[in-house]
């Protein structure tokens, strides 16, 4: 076969192959483009959701009146947490039952926001009542009170459950964060 | 893009109060109001921790005759669908805990006790039994008030459809 004829056959074959495969390649490219568009949209939705969340918090709980109370647990060998009741100025504001999974998360270092609200500037009394099982699986109920001075700016309070090894008892602390 | 985002924020700010107002009721298509209650076994259980499973939530009281018939049917449904990822949860709203304890000892059902009816109020309970089917994403899909003989077949049909999704 002459050389120019061989080249012609090879070129025709290549063109046919391109023609044969291109209809398959096109939808795949289109699917890839849609996938990336969907991903971009998902990211935008997540961004929007985050912005909305921040906007909602800003509107409902302005920084100058905001009070947030968190629960944390350190070791917890002497106390199996069941629930926490929170009262501010003798008014119940939160009553939270902790599931096994939530207690496990607290023991792993997680912090739970039990309350987010607004308070006027001035003095306020915060009381937390912890219920659960203490040493020797006895029912245990203990309260902790703190008087907080609400100034301008957000106030953060931590309710910490820890072990007091010397007394073989749990300890309940209420701590203010600036 | 920025305009669209701003429009979205404005729309959401307008619609948000409406959403907040309806979020605590059992409305089909809306997220099921989350709650935690104590079971008759003494453990605290939270609805959102069953995310990924289809949940049949039913509120009942001892004085409600139809509720007893429904509990029998729910027990059958639980046995039929448990392996496929359906959790039947019955919430007793009597003040006294004895009816809940009795139900749990006689039936293979997960019984929670809502003695102060906080969760019942969250679901705007107006008639008993109230049965709410929650899908694997935590959304309310079907709400049934009262109970008639043929309802078990309807629950069966709805559960099968939810599991097929």
Describe what this molecule looks like in 3D.
The complex is a heterodimer of chains A (178) and B (165). Chain A contains two helices and eight strands. By secondary structure, chain A is an alpha+beta fold. In chain A, strands 4-1-7-8 form a four-stranded mixed sheet. Chain A has a four-stranded antiparallel sheet with strand order 3-2-5-6, with no helix packed on it. The mean pLDDT of chain A is 84. About 10% of the residues of chain B have low confidence. In chain B, strands 2-1-5-4-3-6-7 form a seven-stranded mixed sheet, covered by helices on one side. With 165 residues, chain B is of the alpha/beta class. The chains are: A alpha+beta (178), B alpha/beta (165). At the A-B interface, helix 1 and helix 2 of A face helix 1, strand 1 and strand 2 of B.
What is the radius of gyration of chain A? Answer: 31 Å
Total strands of chain A: the figure is 8
User: Hey, roughly how much beta strand do the residues of chain B contain?
Assistant: 15-25%
- What is Rg of chain B? 17 Å
Determine the structural class of chain B based on helices, strands and strand pairing.
Answer: alpha/beta
Mean pLDDT of chain A: 84
**Form type of chain B:** globular
Most extensive chain interface and residues per partner: A-B, 16 and 15 residues
Helix content of chain B: 40-55%
Distance between the termini of chain B: 33 Å
Q: Structural class, from secondary structure content of chain A?
A: alpha+beta
The largest sheet of chain B is: 7 strands, mixed
């Amino acid at each position: 076969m002459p050389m120019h004829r061989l080249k012609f056959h090879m070129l025709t074959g290549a063109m046919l192959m391109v023609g044969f495969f291109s209809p398959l390649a096109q939808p795949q490219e289109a699917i890839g483009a849609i996938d990336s568009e969907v991903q971009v949209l998902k990211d935008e939705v997540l961004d929007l959701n985050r912005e909305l969340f921040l906007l909602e918090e800003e509107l409902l709980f302005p920084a100058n009146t905001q009070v947030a109370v968190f629960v944390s647990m350190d070791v917890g060998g002497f106390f199996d947490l069941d629930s926490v009741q929170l009262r501010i100025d003798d008014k119940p504001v939160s009553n939270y039952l902790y599931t096994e999974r939530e207690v496990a998360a607290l023991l792993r270092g997680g912090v739970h926001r039990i309350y987010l609200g607004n308070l006027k500037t001035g003095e306020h009394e915060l009381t937390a009542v912890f219920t659960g099982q203490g040493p020797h699986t006895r029912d245990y109920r203990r309260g902790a009170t703190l008087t907080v001075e609400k100034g301008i700016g957000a106030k953060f309070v931590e309710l910490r459950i820890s072990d007091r090894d010397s007394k073989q008892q749990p300890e309940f602390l209420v701590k203010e964060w600036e | 893009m920025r305009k669209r985002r701003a429009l979205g924020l404005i729309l959401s700010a307008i619609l948000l109060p409406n959403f907040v107002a309806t979020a605590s009721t059992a409305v089909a298509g809306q997220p099921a109001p989350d709650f935690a209650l104590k079971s008759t076994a003494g453990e605290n259980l939270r609805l959102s921790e069953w995310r990924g499973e289809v949940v049949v939530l039913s509120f009942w009281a001892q004085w409600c005759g139809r509720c007893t018939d429904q509990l029998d049917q729910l027990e059958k449904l639980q046995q039929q669908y448990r392996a496929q990822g359906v959790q039947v949860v019955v919430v007793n709203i009597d003040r006294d805990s004895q009816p809940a304890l009795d139900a749990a000892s006689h039936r293979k059902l997960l019984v929670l006790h809502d003695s102060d009816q906080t969760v019942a109020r969250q679901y705007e309970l107006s008639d008993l039994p109230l049965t709410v089917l929650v899908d694997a994403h935590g959304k309310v899909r079907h709400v049934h008030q009262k109970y008639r003989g043929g309802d078990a077949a309807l629950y069966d049909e709805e559960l099968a459809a939810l599991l097929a999704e």
